[in-house]
Write a structure and sequence with these properties.
The chain starts with 12 loop residues before the first helix and ends with a helix. With 113 residues, the protein is of the alpha+beta class. The protein has a three-stranded mixed beta sheet with strand order 1-2-3, with helices on one face.
């Protein structure tokens, strides 16, 4: 559910205070824990260190990001991958074919010399 239009977007006050009166070039990385804060047009060009629960991930704000939340650009969960035994077999075959292709290419270059 979206936020009420009469309330306006949620932008953390401390975050706005940190960027007020500064230029994006000389501000450096601004650390924040406010993942729920929406990106406003004043934030464009700044670099934020958004906390993901473990460490701060650097997010450079561009014009396309306005209206989104800071937490969207700092993933808090690590995707391992899908698959199990079958996926490992497929990857092993792919790796073997790459090795065979590399050996064949090496033999071809050695015979040309």
């Amino acid at each position: 559910m979206t936020r009420s239009l009469k309330k306006g977007p949620y932008v953390d006050e401390k975050l706005l205070k940190k960027i007020s009166g500064k230029k994006p070039d000389d501000a450096g990385v601004i650390k924040t824990w406010a993942r729920a804060s929406q990106i406003s047009p004043e934030m464009v060009g700044f670099a934020f260190g958004v906390h993901n629960g473990k460490d701060h991930i650097e997010v450079r704000v561009t014009e396309e990001m306005v209206g989104h939340r800071l937490g969207e650009f700092s993933p808090s969960k690590k995707f391992v991958r899908h698959g199990g035994k079958m996926q490992k077999e497929i990857e092993q075959k792919k790796k073997e074919s790459e090795i065979a292709a590399a050996k064949a290419a090496k033999v071809v270059t050695d015979t040309k010399k």
